[in-house]
Specification:
Strand order of the largest sheet: 4-3-2-6-5-1-11-12
Strand content: 15-25%
Distance between the termini: 61 Å
Number of domains: 1
CATH topology: Glutamine Phosphoribosylpyrophosphate, subunit 1, domain 1
CATH architecture: 4-Layer Sandwich
Helix content: 25-40%
Radius of gyration: 20 Å
Order of helices and strands: HEHHEEHEHHEEEEHHHEEEE
Largest sheet: 8 strands, mixed
CATH superfamily: (Glycosyl)asparaginase
């Protein structure tokens, strides 16, 4: 009898161990949403470049998770790839402000500890998402801005660069067109210059969800304007029991309607799935308010969510249960 009990105990341990190994994990990313992302606008070569970049970022994050790494490390790995790619409005290739320089915003949130970090209006930090991580992990604060954030980044040993490091001819030409439009119409912003953000949300094998977002903001933005990307609850939010969200779009609306938090709150208070909650907020709340954009997210069960009310959103995901998938246009 004693031997039988020991065998049963060992069997239960093996069963539990195998069950633990079946915990879902994965990552979902975005590279911005907008009404200019339509079939026919991009050449075959440009489409291939976007798909390759999204693939590279997703695989970088997923490789961390597959090896048992943390969701935080996976999000950082994926976003750094996007920040280094001039195709996207974050890091190198970010848009120009009305003053003719590049300013970045970024944020990161851990869904288990609820720790969060953000930086805004920074101009010399090579990887703004690393600065957000440093604020979260190594300071008592949630957000640092401007010169203070850059001094903190220097003290943390992060890589600093001259602002012209982020220059690309494509973005500079967009700046010149926006400047000309401003001169002709006396209007600072238009549909052509609103969108562009990168983000990632990951679920690791320990069940932790982390969300991060990074952006150069709006082309020709004014006077240190800060959008939703560095604001916890607007552009980024994570709760390991409910889900994580990274947003992209017209930030002023995402701030006013606390979009990232609202989606997760609906899961909590209304018992909706993450997909149902995102669909309502993006297609009803935002549309009725006049806001454009989208989100990516992941639930504790590994449910991947990619919802947008624009014509397209650069996006990709990979999970332990789903192969790599990349998309640009609306279905």
């Amino acid at each position: 009898m004693r031997k039988l009990l020991w065998l049963l105990a060992i069997g239960l341990l093996v069963f539990n161990f195998q069950g633990m190994g079946q915990t879902p994990y994965g990552i979902v990313i975005h590279g911005g949403a907008g009404n200019g992302i339509v079939e026919g606008r991009f050449s075959a070569e440009e489409e291939e470049a976007y798909e390759a970049a999204l693939t590279e970022a997703t695989e970088a994050g997923y490789a961390v998770l597959e090896k048992g790494g943390s969701a935080e490390a996976a999000v950082i790995a994926a976003i750094k790839v996007l920040e280094d790619n001039p195709l996207f409005n974050a890091g190198k290739g970010a848009v120009f402000t009305a003053e003719g320089k590049v300013e970045h915003d970024a944020s990161l949130m851990h869904g288990t500890s609820k720790a969060a970090g953000a930086v805004a209006s920074v101009t010399t930090i090579r990887h703004p998402i690393e600065a957000a991580q440093a604020v979260m992990d190594h300071s008592p604060h949630v957000m640092l801005t401007g010169k203070g954030a850059e001094l903190f980044a220097r003290d943390q040993g992060l890589q600093l660069v001259e602002n012209n490091f982020f220059f690309t001819e494509k973005r500079y030409n967009q700046f010149l067109r926006a400047k000309e439009k401003r001169s002709e119409e006396r209007s600072y912003l238009s549909e052509d210059f609103k969108f562009g953000t990168v983000g990632a949300v990951a679920l690791d094998q320990e069940g932790h969800i982390v969300a991060g977002t990074s952006t150069g903001g709006m082309t020709y933005k004014l006077y240190g304007r800060v959008g939703d990307s560095p604001i916890i609850g607007a552009g980024t939010y994570a709760d390991s029991k409910l889900g994580g969200i990274s947003a992209t779009g017209h930030g002023e609306f995402f701030i006013r309607y606390a979009v990232a938090y609202d989606i997760v709150a609906r899961v909590n208070y209304l018992q909706e799935s993450l997909t149902q909650a995102a669909e309502h907020v993006i297609h009803t709340t935002l549309v009725e308010a006049g806001g454009d954009g989208g989100i990516v997210g992941i639930s504790p069960a590994g449910e991947v969510v990619m919802v947008f009310n624009t014509t397209g959103m650069f996006r990709a995901y990979q999970t332990s249960e789903q192969p790599l998938s990349v998309g640009m246009y609306g279905e």
